[in-house]
Amino acid sequence: MPLKKTQKREHWASKFGFVLAATGSAVGLGNMWRFPYKAGEFGGGAFVLVYLIAVIAMGIPVLIAEFIIGRSTQKNPVGAFRALRNNKFWPLVGWLGVLTGFVILSYYCVVGGWILKYIFSSLTGTFQTGAAGVRFESFLASPAEMVFWHGIFMGFTIFIVRGGISSGIEKWSKILMPAFIILLLILMINSLFSPGAEKGISFLLKPDFSKLTREGILEALGSAFFSLSLGMGAMLTYGSYLDKDTNISVSSLEIAFLDTFCAIIAGLMIFPIVFTYNVDPKVGPGMFFITLPEVFASMPTGQLIGFTFFVLVAFAAITSAISLLEVVVSFVMDEFGWTRKKADYLLGFVIFVAGIPSALSFNLWSGFTAWGGKNIFDILDSLASNYMLPIGGFFIAIFAGWILTHGEKEAEIKKVENAFHFYDIWHVLIQYVTPVALLIVLLYTTGALSFF
Ligand code: TRP
Question: In the chain, what are the domains?
Fold first, then answer.
């Protein structure tokens, strides 16, 4: 069959660069504001233990599955499923992934914009005690400012993706991720010297199994999955730029370890100051944009610490955003033969426009609500994280566990790495454990099953 002339597929220049880029995708706002608080709420060390089990039993198996599908086909999510099983159904799983990437990126960039705005404010010296809440409210109330910063964040994302795999995403991940980890460690050490350190550490890590409710267990499963950027083909797409000699199993373990490590360190950075200044430990947007700026304002070196904090959060957010844009860009490059430049600029712009309603949902369009009072931003977030990602993840697990043959899978992971029956253990997990766990998460978070 004559092959259509296509651009030669790009590849990662090094295994290290690939691991950092995938870790960059995984480490994001989820690690910074979802994990630490949920851990504190649901019994500290007890939650962390379940989270670790979830990472091992369903996170790593799906991560490996996405890498296998991506590397064996060297294609975007839609092309990959089509190349493996060209029927009516499976390519739709790829389509769902691309659509999910589009949706998440549209509102992710809005939050990315808030972070940039806070970096800018900290440079101009505007953390002031007693004013953070008012400032955040007035920022949210300004449509022009919100759209402006949203656009700037998208601009950075487009810029990095424009450079391609090795000289864009990989190059920037190799700069931003080490910088992120160093800043995170510096701020953590600084926090550990604060008077609230002991209370903060015990809030995050001291196991209390009585607080580990069924809801807590489900939250651990959901967070572990979300935190590794699974279920929509982001890792599949990154895997499609791998060459044959990268060891998928080892890389997956490294990525999962780094992601979990960053989540725990983020907690160790945040809670000691939270308990030192006696503020509400409920992490989330409110803590990042109101409580912490208040705390920074009353710290002696708060201006510098606040600036550093928002810079590191921005690095985490941008390395996640580029992986979302890359999914969509690789899809149109492969399927429609567009150049990277055209795909990147055009789709980046379209997603920017698609994000404007999310930015406006805090001001001009705040009156538009549905689903029990959710604004547009919240609707998109809950649609993507509660429905689209677990559904996508479920079908990826079924595909890898039940549809692909052993031959197809072993070509990617068995030959080089069958130590400790790695393949066999992975196979049992991806066939039974992961799909069942994801189904339960899906049914509970969507309210199809309830606790009482
Ligand atoms: N893992 C990211 C975080 O922890 C969020 C995320 C979920 C994501 N799914 C994704 C990022 C897909 C990139 C691609 O914040």
Answer: 15-451 (1.10.4160.10)
Specify which residues 374 forms β-bridges with. Answer: 370
For ligand 1, atom 6, name the residue with the nearest CA.
229
By the 8 A CB rule, do 68 and 413 touch?
yes
* Ligand 1 pocket residues where CB is under 6 Å: 25-26, 28-31, 104, 226-227, 229, 232, 234, 320, 323-324
3-state per-residue secondary structure call for 141-206: CCHHHHHHHHHHHHHHHHHHHHCCHHHHHHHHHHHHHHHHHHHHHHHHHHHHCCCCHHHHHHHHHC
Query: Ligand 1 centre from 230 Cα, in Å?
Result: 7
Instruction: Indicate the top mutation candidate among 34, 76, 232, 320 to test ligand 1's pocket, ranked by most ligand atoms within 8 A of CB.
Output: 320
Using one digit for the tens of pLDDT, what is the confidence trace for 402-419? 999 999 999 898 655 556
Q: What is the DSSP letter of 88?
A: S
Q: Ligand 1, residue 231: give the atom nearest the CA.
A: 9
Which residue, 64, 22, 316, is CA-closest to 170?
22
Q: Which residue CA neighbors atom 9 of ligand 1 most closely?
A: 229
The set of residues, in sequence order, having a beta carbon less than 8 Å from that of 218 and lying 6+ positions away, is 440, 441, 444, 445
| Confidence grade of residue 451 (pLDDT, cut at 50, 70, 90) | low
Residue with CA at minimum distance from ligand 1 atom 8: 229
pTM over 0.90: yes
Residue 128 Cα to ligand 1 midpoint, Å, equals 32
